[in-house]
Write a structure and sequence with these properties.
It contains 16 helices and 8 strands. It is α/β, with parallel strands linked by helices and 472 residues long. The protein has 2 domains: 231 residues, no CATH class; 217 residues, Rossmann fold (3-Layer(aba) Sandwich). The strands form 2 sheets. The chain has a 6-stranded mixed sheet with strand order 1-2-4-3-5-6. A two-stranded parallel sheet has the order 7-8. The chain starts with a helix and ends in a 5-residue tail after the last helix. This is Peptidase.
């Protein structure tokens, strides 16, 4: 290879490091709110192109050096990474992990570990910088593989956000690994001789063109990306995309207690509200995608809130629909290592009952996914508070199930759920029955995590819910 090749390789590797650092910083600062970035798609596409370019550079280098095992392992790892990326489109659109996606992720991680092993143990390891890069990538791959396997066997590891956190921290290891690759290219440049063999100059020219285009593209939207991230981080940008309509009748409120704690929530009042009558209260606990402080997207993440806001259901089942919003990095309860906001929700309910005409014998709690955990937690820690509960795709503590045997429960879960394994609901139902309870349970054998439409179309679900009254 000639010096111009190594110069281009060095520059592109440095560009990859810069993009990786920018992407990591954005995800660390914004967390789940990174999805609100209008330029996120462009950033990820740019990152993908730079990553592909660096992989091709390394592949060309390994082939030139005669590192056959390492070059083959890198080619396989790169191909599998693109397969995972392709399959991830369905994950983003459906919100659930398919078997093919999980298999592809596991195989991709294993291939990455093999590639890292090649950098360490094959002839490539004779170059100290490449060997060190292999050690870093091996460490990263083992961490991710361990966490994915753990997540597949845990009811809370994935939903609670632990897997996402580990992925973010582990992704940082790609930066020192590519710094070592860059240092290796820099060392090679000092010993390279001109001219190059077998068309290396044409490849270097193509790389220079790509590098120039990449820098121009990066500068074009880089400042906009940073500016928008600052706006979102400061909370000055609101995301109302998950509200079905701009004028839908959910009122926005914020509850504050005596300790200064705040809970944003949306409230749907009964049609033709008459303060001389008593109405049921339906507490709707949203899934993890509704977490935040914008006080809007929790409605789109709450299955029951959307169902009860339909006009026919508002006519047939007049009720107050209370949709609190859980802060990011917290939970409704029942998720290990995540602080619960259950006490704040209960205080907000008490406040509503002081102000509104609510029937205390007809409080109902519903929730899906993260909200499903919350429902189980609420009725096992405050069973006296609720007349009925519908946990959807959730899990709870079987040791506490005996506390809720007098609460009518109708639980729902998909047998193929990978996000929240179905055993979470099965264990709770079995524990309630063993303690003398008579819960209802519907399990969809061919469904995964996204069972919203199936639940909404369940005959007599709302009739069952609104027929329940607290036992005094």
């Amino acid at each position: 290879m000639n010096r111009s090749f190594y110069s281009s390789a060095l520059f592109l590797t440095a560009l990859y490091i810069a993009v990786a650092a920018l992407k990591s910083a954005i995800f660390f600062i914004l967390g789940t709110r990174a999805g609100e970035l209008s330029l996120l798609g462009r950033l990820l596409t740019f990152d993908l192109l730079v990553s592909l370019a660096v992989s091709l550079i390394l592949l060309k280098y390994f082939v030139y050096k005669g590192y056959r095992f390492t070059s083959g392992a890198l080619a396989a790892s790169t191909m599998l990474s693109f397969i995972v990326l392709f399959l991830s489109k369905d994950v983003r659109s459906t919100g659930q992990f398919s078997d093919s996606y999980i298999v592809a992720v596991l195989v991709s991680l294993i291939s990455g570990i093999v590639y890292a092993g090649g950098l360490i143990l094959s002839r490539t390891g004779e170059r100290p910088l490449l060997k060190l890069a292999g050690i870093v990538l091996l460490f990263q791959g083992l961490i991710l593989l361990f966490c994915v396997v753990w997540a597949l066997n845990s009811t809370t590891f994935m939903l609670g956000g632990t897997l996402t956190k580990v992925e973010r921290w582990a992704s940082l290891l790609t930066i020192p690994a590519h710094v070592l690759f860059a240092l290796n290219f820099a060392h090679e440049k000092t010993t390279a001789k001109d001219p190059d063999k077998a068309g290396g100059e044409s490849l270097a020219t193509a790389m220079r063109v790509f590098t120039f285009a990449a820098v121009c593209f990066g500068l074009f939207f880089g400042l906009r990306l940073v500016t928008e991230s600052i706006v979102i981080a400061n909370g000055t940008k609101q995301n109302d995309n998950n509200l079905k309509e701009p004028d839908q009748p959910f009122e926005a409120h914020i509850f504050s207690n005596s300790r200064g704690e705040k809970l944003p929530y949306r409230l749907l009042k009964p049609l033709d509200y008459d303060s001389t009558q008593k109405y049921p209260l339906v507490v709707c606990l949203h899934g993890s995608s509704g977490c935040g402080n914008d006080n809007s997207k929790q409605v789109g993440s709450s299955l029951t809130a959307q169902l009860l806001s339909e006009h026919d259901n508002r006519v047939n089942y007049p009720a107050f629909v209370f949709v609190p919003q859980c802060p990011t990095e917290k939970s409704w309860g029942g998720v290990p290592n995540f602080p619960a906001v259950d006490a704040l929700v209960f205080e907000a309910i008490d406040d509503l009952e002081r102000k509104l005409s609510i029937d205390k014998d007809r409080r109902y709690v519903t929730g899906n996914s993260l909200g499903g955990y919350g429902v189980w937690h609420f009725i096992t820690t405050r069973p006296d508070m609720f007349a009925a509960a519908t946990p959807i795709s959730g899990a709870g503590s079987p040791t506490l199930a005996k506390n809720s045997i007098h609460v009518p429960v109708w639980a729902f879960h998909g047998a193929k759920d990978r996000n929240v394994p179905v055993k979470g609901s099965r264990l709770m139902i079995e524990a309630m029955k063993s303690a003398g309870g008579t819960p209802l349970y519907t399990e969809y054998q061919d469904a995964a995590h996204d069972i919203g439409e199936k639940v909404k179309n369940t005959p007599s679900l709302l009739d069952w819910l609104f027929d329940q009254r607290a036992i005094n």
